[in-house]
Each structure stands twice: as structure tokens, then as C-alpha cells.
Design a protein that fits this description.
homodimer, 278 residues, alpha+beta, D-amino Acid Aminotransferase, Chain A, domain 2
């Protein structure tokens, strides 16, 4: 099921600035039994992205459309869980970079099947790789889940067989994030995650873990991480809204066996109902 | 007039990766009496961009479609000159950054009116500004006219009233390009233009000037330029396929009065038939 500006549709105008310049923001939301999980946090990030990119948005209308679409999709599907992508673009505009004088944003809702992933990813961890493309430092866009995603598309094309995720560095050799996830590194009982003020996407699940890890007695910290920090880590955790948390079992020569914290955090996310329980 | 994959249309799928990730390349081409100017050079850059972004393309078909569409548009319009935007996207794909296993690119041709600009821009020069957003350094994307253009959209939103163009710097305080043009600086008889190996768009008109300036006795050089170089210049020239060349009459406190070379080069471009003569 797909909706454009509240109406069932799979088409948008070729004049949409989302297509012309990637001038849009999006959220990928887990939906369980018609309920979008972590909706408030997703919407907060979407609103913030729209504000920074000057995209106008009728928030009340968007939330109402999401709610109604999720109910409709649940009524029509046989599975409990699916994925909703919400996009808001700058809408139609003339040729050239100048924003329209009276922009009317385009709202796109698109449902798809929940990705099928082996259970081992959660239980036994994944093989983490590292791609060669570096993330460019652009504070004006950092943190926003916008649609200028060529770096991620190139990164994904650089994955090797067997990798479950791959990290990206910036030009300063700092580890920033996974191709489609954020990461935490466990060392001496402290969970650390990279600073994202110059590049990277501020993940909703990253935020949730930062806000809730203390409930299971783990302190968190935001700061600079290097490849050496990953190699020396007691554990590495990859996270996003759809997968929750995958521990890493291998990163280059290094093997990791301490999955306790990852499993404990995953249990917390499931108990809180912020990821599907399947 | 607008065409999608050779058929008259103004719609594309919401699943197109051009919309989802800005995974597309485009060219903005001046068309005079049904003839697309500098077509070979535009196509060379488009092909190169497609190759670097792994976008498959039937080149013969695209060129045939452009030729036919330009003839049709000329037959139906009352004006001699218009603008053709050619876009090639990665086409439809599933959710996620991974490229489709058998991608089918989308070809979009879209005609619009030639921008109306005061004649003074060519004769007396423009007021050149400078925006605060910096261009991020990303060698993997540098030079390509791709659709991840949020930096340019933000730059355009930072223009002040009266500016005819505005330059962007990178993080190293190097001058890279205009918001929608490339630039040359004239100093001691030498035309210099920034190196674009880390960021910026390799403009078709920039290439043409580099290849042809020697015909009017001017040497050219590619290298690093700073704001100080612009302030100390004998002349500054902004160029792209649609405008040809605009000289700069003012850049911050600095005034420029030497428009001879700009007018001479413009004459050469008109004589060569690579820009409209209106």
C-alpha cells in the first residue's frame, strides 16, 4: 500500500524537488499490528529535518495519515509486522536550486514487507566489514535523515559476501556509523557511540539506547571512535529501528564473544515494545 | 513537454531510487531551434556519471530520444531557445541502499523556458556574493552532476538580494565554484579555475573554455584559488551552459572593470554556436 498526499498512489511528479535534488527527509518505521513503533521519536527527527531543510509540513495531517494508513495496511495484510517508509519532500518547483516561494511539500507513505533476516544475527552476531568510501564532513546536513544518500548507496555496493553490516569512517579516520545503522562499542562497562555533529544519521534506536541503557546499569558516552577502539572493544553493537540490535561476532581479524549486554538490551527493547518480538 | 522513458509523461514511480536516494545524474542543456548545444560534451559527462554511480544506460536510445524530443519541442513552441533537462536515474528498486540486481534506469526529458536575465549581466557584470555553507570534500562524487544537491539548495537559500551568483568554499578555504556555475579568475593574463577533484561539478562550459581560450591567446591553468585570489584578480568570470559567461563587477569590497576578456570569450562562444545568440 502506498499513499501520496493522503491518496492511494505510487506516482509523483518529475518536477518534485525530492527527485531533482534529493530535497526530502524520510523515516523507516517498524509497524506491528497497525501500530508504528517509536513514532514520536521518528516524527521528532522528521520535523527537525524539515525545519533545517526549510520544508514546510502540516504535522497534524501527516500523523493522522500515518495512523489511518497503518490501520488500513494491518486490516489488509496477513502478517503482524511490516515496514513503513514516510517521506516528505520539498514538493514541486521550477528549474534551479532556488526554493519555491510558496512550497507545498509532498507526503509519501509506502509499506513493504519486514526484512527477512536469520535469527543468528541477533543471537550469535554478524560479520562486520568496513567500506573504503569515506563520509564527507558536512555539519549543515549532519544528523538529518535526508535523501542525499549516494554515499550510502556506494558504501552498500562495496560490501563483501558474508558481511551483515559495514562501517564507514570520515576523512579524519573516525568511525561514524554503519551503512544502515549506528554503532556502540562496549569497553570496561561503558557503551560509547560516535559523535555525529559533522556527518552521519542520528538514529532513533541510537537515541533510545542512549536514553535507556542506564536502566540495565550501563553508562553511555558520545565521543570519537577509531578502528583501534573497535578492535580493542569487549563488544560491538549495531542498531537501527528495524533490527533493534545486532552484536558483532567478527570485525577483520578480531572475534567477539561477549553478547550478554546486547541480548540484555534487546530484551529491554522487546519488553518496551519498541521493536517487533518475532 | 516532458518524457519519461520515451513516452509523454510527467510522473515517475515513488519507488524510483532517484527519489529515494538522489541516485541520478542530470544535464541542463541549451536548445536552439531544435538543436541541443554542446550535446556531445553533456552526454560524455552524463555517461561518466552513470558509470561511476553504476547506473546502466542505453546511450543510443537516449540520444535518439533527445534528438526527437528537441525537434518536437521546437515544432510546438514559438520561441527559438529553451532549456532541456535530461535526467537518468537508477530506476525502481526495493527498500534499502543495495542496488537492484537487474537495474533498469529511468530516462527523463523535461523542457522549460529559457531563463530571462537582464542583458547587463553579460555586458556590465554581476554582483558576486559568498555563502556560508561549505562544500564537503567527497572524491567519490566529485565532478559528477548527480542529484545529491542539498548543499546547492542551501547555498541558494543563503543568497542576498542583488547577488547574481555566489561562490562556495570547501573546508580548506579553497574557492570551488558558484552555486550554479564554475568560475575563472584572470590574473596577469592567465585564466585560472579551481581544481575539482575533491568537490564541485565539472562544468561543460568550464571544459569548453579550458579547451578553447588559447584561440584568443589566453593561457589557462587548473589549481587552488582562495578568496584573496578573487580579490586580487584583474577579472572574475562565471560560466555555465545556459548563461555562457557573466563577468563579475563586484565581489565584497572589490570592484572589477576589466570585462574585455569576458566579452571576447563570449563572442567566441557565440561564434562557435555553443550558446544562444539572443
Amino acid at each position: 500500500m502506498h499513499f501520496v498526499n493522503g491518496k492511494s498512489s505510487t506516482q509523483i511528479s518529475i518536477h518534485d524537488r525530492g527527485l531533482a535534488y534529493g530535497q526530502s527527509v524520510f523515516e523507516t518505521i517498524a509497524v506491528v499490528k497497525g501500530k508504528p513503533l517509536l513514532l514520536k521519536k521518528h516524527m521528532q527527527r522528521l520535523y527537525s529535518g524539515c525545519e533545517r531543510l526549510l520544508i514546510p509540513l502540516n504535522k497534524t495531517r501527516l500523523v493522522a495519515e500515518i495512523s489511518e494508513a497503518c490501520q488500513q495496511a494491518y486490516a489488509k495484510t496477513e502478517t503482524d509486522s511490516f515496514v513503513l517508509r514516510v517521506s516528505v519532500t520539498m514538493g514541486e518547483g521550477g528549474r534551479g536550486y532556488r526554493n519555491p516561494s510558496e512550497p507545498k511539500s509532498t507526503r509519501i507513505l509506502s509499506f513493504s514487507a519486514y526484512p527477512s533476516v536469520p535469527k543468528e544475527n541477533w543471537l550469535d552476531g554478524i560479520h562486520l566489514g568496513m567500506v573504503t568510501i569515506r563520509l564527507a564532513q558536512q555539519p549543515a546536513l549532519a544528523g538529518i535523515k535526508h535523501s542525499n544518500r549516494l554515499e550510502q548507496v556506494i558504501a552498500r555496493s562495496q560490501w563483501k559476501d558474508g558481511w551483515g553490516e559495514a562501517i564507514l569512517l570520515d576523512d579524519m579516520d573516525s568511525v561514524i556509523e554503519g551503512t544502515q545503522s549506528n554503532l556502540f562499542v562496549l569497553k570496561n562497562g561503558m557503551l560509547r557511540t560516535p559523535d555525529l555533529s559533522a556527518c552521519g544519521v542520528v538514529g532513533v534506536m541510537r537515541d533510545y539506547i542512549l536514553a535507556n541503557a542506564s536502566r540495565i546499569g550501563v553508562a553511555t558516552q558520545i565521543g570519537r571512535l577509531t578502528v583501534a577502539d573497535l578492535e580493542a572493544a569487549d563488544a560491538i553493537l549495531m542498531c537501527n529501528s528495524l533490527i533493534g540490535i545486532w552484536p558483532v561476532k567478527r570485525f577483520y581479524g578480531q572475534e567477539y564473544e561477549n553478547f550478554k549486554l546486547s541480548h540484555k538490551l534487546l530484551g529491554l527493547l522487546r519488553d518496551d515494545g519498541v521493536i517487533p518480538t518475532h
